[in-house]
Amino acid sequence: MDRDDFIIQVYCQVCDHSSQVLARHPLRQRGFGPSFTDEEVMTLEICGEYFGFDQEEALSAYFADHYRHFFPNLPSRTTFVRQAANLWQVKRLLQQRLTEVSGQAADAIQAIDTLPLPVCTYTRSSRDRCFKPEADYGHGAAKKLDYYGFKLGLRISRAGMIIQAPLLPARPHDSQLLPDLIAGFVGLVPADKGFIDAWRQTELARKRAIQLVTPRRKNMPEPPPATQQLIRWCRRWRKRIETVASHLTERFQIARTRAHDLWHYEHRLMRKVLAHTMCVFINLPLGRPPLDLDGLVSQPLVAH
Fold first, then answer.
1. Is the N or the C terminus of the chain less surrounded, counting Cβ atoms within 10 Å?
2. Quick check: bond before 133 cis, omega within 30?
3. Proportion of the chain above pLDDT 70, given as a percent
């Protein structure tokens, strides 16, 4: 599909599913609705993120210049930003609904991982006034990165749809963050070596019927043949979450999210997660590879 078709498709999906969300969680109790509808705002945000506009100024300017015929009531940038921020709860519920309607939330195998989220350079961290005391120092083992900020937790289905994406503290070891990552889930959980914890794995299997499968470290004894086969089988599903993390980092620039307070920061993170979820949601009924985001739109615009 081209960009016009993509925008129309996103708008239709947002209208269909946000109406169900707002029926259970009404946003406004009285007064007139805005001339630029909430569905239009969320459509612009999702499409803007996909096209590479992660800053509201560039996003608003692009749609004002090229798609005024689609959005004749597009407001000023400040009004758009304010309305978009006030919809953060609706976007969170919309993302959850997409996972449920698609059936991906019920997948019995869901991989987990964490993604480092720096909020400023390491040298400026001591002068941070925006995110203290929530932000902290952390270490990304995969890239051998010391940073100041948070972790983004990821739990995805086998198709690659993000089921949960909690904002987590940076300092604790990944294994200590398991309760946030597997909340409400029962099934098989492929994970990397950062989640190795024999006691927690045993307790999860015994009390919650959750089988956390991690690779073996070199200094660990050889597992039984059946366990070795399961580890090899889960390795394939673990690669999916690396692809999702790559999408969030490169296409959606999630590690470069900028905000002046935690509330706006979480809102912008949710917008990126919703945009990724929407792309996978559109791919699934088309029979396309769910994580082929590049091919979803022919010649997508890349913002510089």
1. C
2. yes
3. 94
CA 165 to chain centre: 5
User: Distance of CA 47 to CAs 30, 51, 61, 225, 282, Å?
Assistant: 30, 6, 13, 47, 13
Nearest to 102 by CA among 94, 111, 91, 92: 94
User: pLDDT tens digits for 185-239?
Assistant: 888 889 888 888 888 888 888 878 888 888 877 777 777 777 777 778 888 888 8
Ranges of each domain in the chain: 107-256
- Alpha-carbon distance of 112 to 168, in angstroms, equals 13
**What is the CB neighbour count within 10 angstroms for residue 12?**
12
